C-alpha cells in the first residue's frame, strides 16, 4: 500500500473536513495515540483539562491517564523524563506550554536528546516530539510571545518544524511523531484559530475560509524537509514560515506583486533545492520571520542564498524580522514585522 | 524618598553588618586531619523498616548511617543481607577487578595512550554492591564513576579499554570522552559529561516501565556535588509525583573536584535528608561497607518493584584519589584525609569480613590480585591491537557524520565532502576506506 504522503496541498482523494489548527493538531495526536501504543502525551495542564490551548482535549478521556497526564511545572523534568521514556522505547510527545518556557529544558534538549544517538553510536535514541506554541500577536508580553526557533536550528541533532496551516500542522505533526530524531514542533499560536493578514485592527478571519483548513480525514504525513510553494511567481521569492506566510501573502497580494512564496515548513532539515530553484528563477529574495533579527534563522537563509544563488541575484537579499528587543506588551504591533516593514522591503527589492 | 512599611522601625538597628558565608572544608593541604567530629554510629545501630513502610519511617535513616560490618569484621544487625560466601567472594572479586582496571588505565593515560581517565578508588562498593542488589535487566543511569556496574554486569573489559583508547574497535566510534561508556545490552545508559542530566531521565525511564506494566526498575547515580543541579530537583519531583520505580544514589565522596561537600549544602543537612521534603524514602549508608550498600540497594529495589515508589540513598564515602587524571588533589586538600578516613577501604573491609568468616585468606587475596592484574594486562594488550588514541587506528573517517540524525541530511553530506577534501589536500594518498 502506498503511504499517503502528500502532493502539494490537496491530498489525493481522501475525504476532507474543515479544521482550525488546534483541531488539526488535536486530530493528529488522536490518530497517533490510536496507531501507536508507545505514544505518550504529557505536560503542564495537558491531561484532564486538555491543555491551555485545548490541543490535547479529549486525549486523556480516550487513552487514559497512563498515557496522557499533567506534569509538575518543571520543563527540565518534562524533557528529561521524555528522554528516559524514549530510552525505554516509548515515543513521547511532551508539550511545553509556551515556547518562552522551554529554556529550563534546554540542557536536556541540547546536550541529551539531540546527542543521544551520536554519543551512544545508535544504541539509544530520542524519538521525542516537543510541541510548543510560539510567536506573538496575542498580547502575550515578553514571556508568551517569543520565537526561539534559531536556538534549536543551531543544534546538531535536532529537527525544527513550524506549520502554517491546519492541513500542514496535522501531516507534519504525524511525521514528527513518527520520526526517530528529536523534533521541536513550534505551533504559531496567532494562527491557531485563523490565518492572519498582519492587520491587527481588522476583524479576525476564521480558518474556514482558507484552503489550508481543508484537512484530509485519517492518517497522512507531510515529509519533514519538504517546503511548500504557496504561490508561484516571477517577481521575487519570499522565504517564510508559520504566521509570516499569511502576512507576507496578504501584503504581496495587496501590492499586486507576482511573488513566489515558499513556506519552509521544516527549518532543519531545510529544503534547499526548492529555495535554490526559486531564487535562481526570480533573482530576488525576501526573508521574513517574526523572531529577533541578530543570529536569527533569516541570517542562515540569507547566507545560504548568497552562497548558492549569488550570480542570479539582482538585488541584495532582504531580511524582515522582529526587532532585537524583548517582545513588548503594549507596543506589540510596533515590534511585529507587519505590512509596513514587509512593504518597504518589497519596494526596495522591486526598485533594484 | 518614599518610606516603606518597615522604615519607622529599627530594622538592622544595632546588628553587625551582614557578611557572606563561604563554606570552607575542615582541612587544607598540610593540615593535620582529625575526623572525630564525624558522627559515625556503630554497625547494626539502626532498625530495618519494612520495605513497604510509609516514607516517614525512613526519616531517622536519612540522618543516621546504615552500617553492617563492625570493627571485628563481622556482619551485624537488621541490615545484614546474609549473603552466602560465594556471592561475597564474587563481589570482592568484582571490586578488586575494578580497582586493578583503574590502576592500569590510570597508568595508560600517564603513558599517553589516552587523554583522560577517572578512577573510583575507595568508592567501588557504591557501584558494585548496588549492581549486585539489582536485577541485570534493571536499567542503570550512571554518572562517570560507576565503572564497577559495567564490570559487575560482565561487560568485557577489553571493550572498556577500546572505548578509553577511542580506537577502531571502540563501540562508540571514538566519539565520547574516555570512560563515558554505553551498553544497551547491559542496560547501562550512555554516560553524559553534563552532570545530573541522567537523574530526570532515570525517573522518566521508570515512569515508562510503570506505564507499560513492566517489572523492571531504574537506578541512577550522581555525586554529592552534582546533586546541586536543578536536574536533581526535577528528578525528585517527577519521581515522587508519579511514584516512579527508581532508586536515586548520591555518592557523597566529600569532594567535587576541589569543592568540598559544603558547596552542595552538606554543611547544613545530610544528602539523604533531601528525600524528606519530597516525601520519598531516604537511606544514608556507609558507602565503604559493601554489605550495607547491598542491603540498602536491595531494600530500595524491592520497594520500587513492589510499586511503593522511589528511594534516595546517600552513600557516605571518600574519593581516595583525584577527580580525574587532570586533577591534583594535593593542591586543595590534606593528603592525610585518605589515611584518616574513618570508614576505611571497601575492598579491605570485605576481604577482612570473608577472612573472619573463614571463607578467604590473605594468600588467596594476594593471588587473586595478581591474577586480576594479569587479566587487565592481557585485555590491555588485546585492545592495543586496535590502536591507542591519536595513532591513526580510529574509526573510518566518514563515521564522524553518522548518527547525528537517523539519515544524513544534505547539509551534513556537503560538510562530509568538505572534510574528505581537506583530508586529501593534507595527505594526497589518503583513501576514505583504509
Structural description of this entry:
- The complex is a heterodimer of chains A (352) and B (434).
- Chain A has twelve helices and 14 strands.
- Chain A starts with 15 loop residues before the first strand and ends with a helix.
- The model of chain A is unreliable at 1-10 (pLDDT under 50).
- Chain A has two domains: 16-199 and 203-214, Thiamin diphosphate (ThDP)-binding fold, Pyr/PP domains (Rossmann fold); 225-351, Rossmann fold (3-Layer(aba) Sandwich).
- Chain A has helices spanning 21-35, 59-63, 75-88, 106-113, 116-119, 149-153, 166-178, 243-255, 272-282, 297-309, 332-335, 339-351, and strands at 16-18, 39-43, 68-70, 91-95, 129-134, 159-161, 183-188, 214-216, 228-231, 236-240, 259-263, 266-268, 285-288, 318-320.
- With 352 residues, chain A is an alpha/beta fold.
- The longest helix of chain A is centred in the first third of the chain and has 15 residues, at 21-35.
- With 434 residues, chain B is α/β, with parallel strands linked by helices.
- Chain B has two domains: 55-384, Thiamin diphosphate (ThDP)-binding fold, Pyr/PP domains (Rossmann fold), CATH 3.40.50.970; 397-426, no CATH class.
- Chain B contains 13 helices and seven strands.
- Chain B has helices at residues 59-63, 85-110, 124-133, 147-152, 157-165, 198-211, 230-241, 274-278, 290-305, 336-340, 346-356, 362-384, 410-426; strands at residues 139-141, 218-223, 246-252, 255-256, 259-260, 281-286, 311-316.
- In chain B, helix 2 runs antiparallel to helix 11, helix 2 crosses helix 12 (362-384) and helix 6 (198-211) packs parallel to helix 7.
- The longest helix of chain B has 26 residues, at 85-110.
- Chains A and B meet through helix 3, helix 4 and helix 5 of A and helix 6 and helix 7 of B.
Amino acid at each position: 500500500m502506498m503511504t499517503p504522503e502528500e502532493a502539494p496541498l490537496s491530498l489525493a482523494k481522501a475525504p476532507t473536513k474543515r479544521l482550525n489548527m488546534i483541531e488539526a493538531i488535536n486530530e493528529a495526536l488522536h490518530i497517533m495515540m490510536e496507531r501507536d501504543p508507545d505514544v505518550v502525551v504529557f505536560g503542564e495542564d495537558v491531561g484532564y483539562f486538555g491543555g491551555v490551548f485545548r490541543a490535547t482535549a479529549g486525549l486523556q478521556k480516550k487513552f487514559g491517564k497512563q498515557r496522557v497526564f499533567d506534569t509538575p511545572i518543571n520543563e527540565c523534568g518534562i524533557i528529561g523524563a521524555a528522554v528516559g521514556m524514549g530510552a525505554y522505547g516509548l515515543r513521547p510527545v511532551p508539550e511545553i506550554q509556551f515556547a518562552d518556557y522551554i529554556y529550563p529544558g534546554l540542557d536536556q534538549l541540547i546536550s541529551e536528546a539531540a546527542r543521544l544517538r551520536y554519543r551512544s553510536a545508535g544504541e539509544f535514541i530520542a524519538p521525542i516530539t516537543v510541541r510548543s506554541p510560539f510567536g506573538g500577536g496575542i498580547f502575550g508580553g515578553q514571556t508568551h510571545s517569543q520565537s526561539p526557533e534559531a536556538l534549536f536550528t543551531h543544534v546538531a541533532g535536532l529537527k525544527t518544524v513550524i506549520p502554517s496551516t491546519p492541513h500542514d500542522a496535522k501531516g507534519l505533526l504525524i511525521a514528527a511523531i513518527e520520526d526517530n530524531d528529536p523534533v521541536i514542533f513550534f505551533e504559531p499560536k496567532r494562527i491557531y484559530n485563523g490565518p492572519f493578514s498582519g492587520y491587527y485592527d481588522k476583524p479576525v478571519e476564521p480558518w474556514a475560509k482558507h484552503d489550508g483548513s481543508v484537512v484530509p480525514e485519517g492518517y497522512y504525513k507531510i515529509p519533514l524537509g519538504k517546503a511548500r510553494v504557496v504561490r508561484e511567481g516571477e517577481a521575487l521569492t519570499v522565504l517564510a514560515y508559520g504566521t509570516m506566510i499569511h502576512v507576507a501573502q496578504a501584503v504581496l497580494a495587496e501590492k499586486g506583486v507576482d511573488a513566489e512564496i515558499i513556506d519552509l515548513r521544516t527549518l532543519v532539515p531545510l529544503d534547499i533545492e526548492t529555495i535554490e530553484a526559486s531564487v535562481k528563477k526570480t533573482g530576488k529574495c525576501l526573508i521574513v520571520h517574526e523572531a529577533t533579527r541578530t543570529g536569527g534563522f533569516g541570517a542562515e537563509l540569507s547566507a545560504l542564498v548568497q552562497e548558492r544563488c549569488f550570480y542570479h541575484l539582482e538585488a541584495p537579499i532582504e531580511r524582515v524580522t522582529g526587532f532585537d528587543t524583548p517582545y513588548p506588551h503594549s507596543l506589540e504591533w510596533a515590534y511585529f514585522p507587519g505590512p509596513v516593514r514587509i512593504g518597504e522591503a518589497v519596494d526596495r527589492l522591486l526598485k533594484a | 524618598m518614599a518610606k516603606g512599611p518597615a522604615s519607622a522601625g529599627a530594622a538592622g538597628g544595632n546588628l553587625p553588618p551582614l557578611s557572606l558565608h563561604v563554606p570552607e572544608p575542615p582541612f587544607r593541604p598540610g593540615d593535620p586531619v582529625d575526623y572525630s567530629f564525624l558522627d559515625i554510629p556503630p554497625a547494626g545501630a539502626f532498625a530495618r523498616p519494612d520495605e513497604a513502610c510509609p516514607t516517614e519511617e525512613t526519616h531517622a535513616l536519612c540522618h543516621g548511617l546504615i552500617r553492617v560490618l563492625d570493627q571485628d569484621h563481622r556482619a551485624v544487625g537488621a541490615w545484614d543481607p546474609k549473603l552466602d560466601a560465594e556471592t561475597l567472594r564474587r563481589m570482592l572479586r568484582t571490586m578488586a577487578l575494578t580497582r586493578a582496571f583503574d590502576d592500569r588505565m590510570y597508568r595508560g593515560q600517564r603513558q599517553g595512550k589516552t587523554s583522560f581517565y577517572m578512577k573510583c578508588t575507595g568508592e567501588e562498593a557504591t557501584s558494585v554492591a548496588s549492581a549486585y542488589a539489582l536485577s541485570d535487566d534493571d536499567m542503570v543511569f550512571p554518572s562517570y564513576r560507576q565503572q564497577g556496574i559495567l564490570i559487575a554486569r560482565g561487560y568485557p573489559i577489553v571493550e572498556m579499554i577500546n572505548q578509553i583508547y577511542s580506537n577502531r574497535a571502540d563501540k562508540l566510534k571514538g566519539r565520547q570522552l574516555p570512560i563515558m561508556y554505553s551498553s544497551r545490552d547491559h542496560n547501562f545508559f550512555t554516560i553524559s559529561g553534563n552532570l545530573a542530566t541522567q537523574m530526570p531521565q532515570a525517573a522518566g525511564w521508570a515512569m515508562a516501565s510503570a506505564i507499560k506494566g513492566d517489572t523492571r526498575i531504574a537506578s541512577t547515580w550522581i555525586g554529592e556535588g552534582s546533586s546541586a543541579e536543578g536536574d536533581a530537583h526535577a528528578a525528585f519531583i517527577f519521581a515522587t509525583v508519579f511514584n516512579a520505580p527508581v532508586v536515586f544514589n548520591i555518592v557523597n565522596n566529600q569532594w567535587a573536584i576541589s569543592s568540598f561537600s559544603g558547596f552542595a549544602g552538606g554543611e547544613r543537612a545530610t544528602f539523604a535528608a533531601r528525600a524528606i521534603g519530597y516525601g520519598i524514602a531516604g537511606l544514608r549508608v556507609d558507602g565503604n561497607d559493601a554489605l550495607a550498600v547491598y542491603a540498602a540497594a536491595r531494600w530500595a529495589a524491592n520497594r520500587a518493584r513492589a510499586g511503593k515508589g522511589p528511594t534516595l540513598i546517600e552513600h557516605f564515602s571518600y574519593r581516595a584519589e583525584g577527580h580525574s587524571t587532570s586533577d591534583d588533589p594535593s593542591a586543595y586538600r590534606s593528603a592525610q584525609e585518605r589515611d584518616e578516613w574513618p570508614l576505611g577501604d571497601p575492598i579491605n573491609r570485605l576481604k577482612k569480613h570473608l577472612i573472619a568468616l573463614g571463607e578467604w585468606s590473605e594468600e588467596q587475596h594476594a593471588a587473586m590480585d595478581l591474577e586480576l592484574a594479569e587479566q587487565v594486562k592481557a585485555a590491555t594488550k588485546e585492545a592495543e591491537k586496535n590502536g591507542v588514541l591519536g595513532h591513526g587506528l580510529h574509526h573510518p573517517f566518514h563515521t564522524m557524520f553518522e548518527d547525528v540524525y537517523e539519515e544524513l541530511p544534505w547539509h551534513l553530506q556537503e560538510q562530509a565532502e568538505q572534510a574528505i577534501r581537506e583530508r586529501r589536500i593534507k595527505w594526497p594518498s589518503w583513501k576514505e576506506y583504509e
